[in-house]
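Contributing new records

If you add data, match the layout below exactly. Sequence lines come first and carry their own label; structure lines follow with theirs. Keep one chain per record. Anything else will be rejected by the validation script.
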Amino acid sequence: MTQHAQSADVGVPAWLPNALTVLRLILVPVFLVLLFVHPDQFSWRLAATLAFSVAILTDLFDGKIARRYNLVSDFGKIWDPIADKALTGAAFISLSILGELPWWITIIILVREWGITWMRAAMLKYEVMAAAAGGKLKTVLQSIALIMFLPYPMPALRDLLPFWFWLAWLVMGAAFVLTLVTGVMYVRDALKLKADAAAKGPGGQS
């Protein structure tokens, strides 16, 4: 694993970003249990939403820490997006199972997400494809949309914030469009990377 660590100087352990990524993966089953124990009770819905939110925050912090202290690693480049997709994928599927999000939205998003993840893994023989800025923005929009959808079915929230439904769908629509657009961009970049590698030949020279 390639890792440039400066933790000795700044007091940040070199393993911290990767540990946050692993924590995000662990929080996936925790979130699912909280959501499905009593999906019709506000307290359990709120607990599930909080667990999901904490997991998403680990993505924000592990990325910031890794970049700020030069702790970027190949482990993080590969497993960070996988952890993101495991978490958001679990939320999309759960909402569809509960009948609160159309299955066609979930299926299209998951095909794009895991298809691109598989493609990035296949491209490792050429080069590690780090998450692009558009991909990060897509994850942010998906996360906000899911956080807005998770507690919405509860009457208490609908009565308090009647506009929440339309705002949640607006954010979900934007996330859906950006998910498709960034998917096309990743495919384009992968094709270019493969073409460049082919042009250089086995010796790495063009």
